[in-house]
Amino acid sequence: MKDHQNPRRSSRISKLSVLGVIVLALVIALYPLPYYVTSPGSANELAPIIHVKDGDKEKGSFMLTTVRIGKANIPQYLYAKVSDYRELLPANEVRSDDETDEEYNQRQLQMMQDSQHAATVVAYRKAGKNVKIISKGVYVTGIISGMPAEGKLKVGDEITELEGKPVKTTEELLKKLAGKKAGDKVQLKVLRGKKTFMKTVALAKFPKKLSQNNEKRAGIGITYPVTDVEIKVDPPIYIKTSEIGGPSAGLMFSLEILNQLTKGDMTKGHKIAGTGTININEEVGPIGGIQQKIVAADKAGAEIFFAPVSANNYKDAVKAAKDIKTDMKIIPVKKMDDAINYLNKLK
């Protein structure tokens, strides 16, 4: 006599097996790893983003370049290991242990705003226009877990006074707190949204992992404090960057603003991408992910790419350009004038 398997039982086992495979696949796909993965982003034209009132038009374009970044799961981790233009970064290199997603995003957006301010000041001064810089207070963009500020201050708060005296810059705040010791209390005037209130916060020693050379420095426990700056210029300027974060578009912002402020077209009809921070001394600083930005710019059809010289950015950019066999010219820049001088010689 032959044994016969119950068809209902067989069907049930089959369904459970499929369900098990689905659950396993979800676990593998969603299980977070202590890494972030970066990949080539996009190259975005700046003319639609930046608008100087009655500004000059351009036939070509200046473009900012971006890098995509996200938490790595197992498939992304494995893919990054075998991909030339996907990079794995340990989580603690991207953000501190105590930094939440909200705090990280706030810090990136604040850095973008600071970059816009520096770029605006540089471009307007270069064009011979008047610029007025007004410092208004200090933004809280991060809070250290276990420190006194936790539960009393929030990311996005703006400190405008300490002990009844105005605090307009990060340097002022740090200087005033430097004279205090652990256990001291300070009264802060805080702007949160449209509401202003007073808050008393104690000082405490920083955790050992955040102290340098076992220093016994004390503080209230905020990280990455940033000065709230208002820039007044004529003609007026409007910049809309949506959710793009970070400071790396400074150089390209400056070039686009200057091009709109002055007669003639600096692009001369070319598609020009680039990257690099900029400060009010017109110095172009290094950024991360430049090889991925080379890929993004090439895909967007850029003919020229400005790359910072420092921190091997230029060398890495040239290496990536050769690797992907692009015809895009990679131009090294230390200061904004290096880019301007190159553009002046363009046909």
Short structural summary:
By secondary structure, this protein is α+β, with helices and mostly antiparallel strands. Helices cover 33% and strands 27% of the residues. The chain folds into 2 domains: 36-69 and 109-128 and 234-344, Ribosomal Protein S5, domain 2 (2-Layer Sandwich), CATH 3.30.230; 135-228, Roll (Pdz3 Domain).
Would you write up a description of this structure?
The protein starts with 6 loop residues before the first helix and ends with a helix. It is an alpha+beta fold. It has 2 domains: 36-69 and 109-128 and 234-344, Ribosomal Protein S5, domain 2; 135-228, Pdz3 Domain. The radius of gyration is 25 Å and the shape is flat. 33% of the residues lie in helices and 27% in strands. The chain has 9 helices and 18 strands. The strands form 5 sheets. The chain has a 6-stranded mixed beta sheet, with helices on both faces. Strands 5, 6, 7, 8, 9 and 12 form a 6-stranded antiparallel beta sheet that branches. A two-stranded antiparallel sheet has the order 2-13.
Characterize the main sheet.
6 strands, mixed
Low-confidence stretches: none
The N- and C-terminal alpha carbons lie at a distance of 92 Å
The spatial strand order of the largest sheet comes to 4-1-3-14-17-18
- Second-tier CATH architecture of the largest domain: 2-Layer Sandwich
Estimated helix fraction: 25-40%
Determine the oligomeric state from the structure: single chain
Q: Give the strand content.
A: 25-35%
Taken from the alpha-carbon principal axes, the silhouette is flat
Number of strands: 18
> Would you tell me which CATH topology of the largest domain applies?
Ribosomal Protein S5, domain 2
Structural class: alpha+beta
- Any idea what the radius of gyration is? 25 Å
What number is the mean pLDDT? 87
Number of helices: 9
Query: What is the CATH top level name of the largest domain?
Result: Alpha Beta
Number of self-contained structural domains? 2
Q: What is the string of SSEs from the N terminus onward?
A: HEEEHEHHEEEHEEEEEEHEEEHEHEH
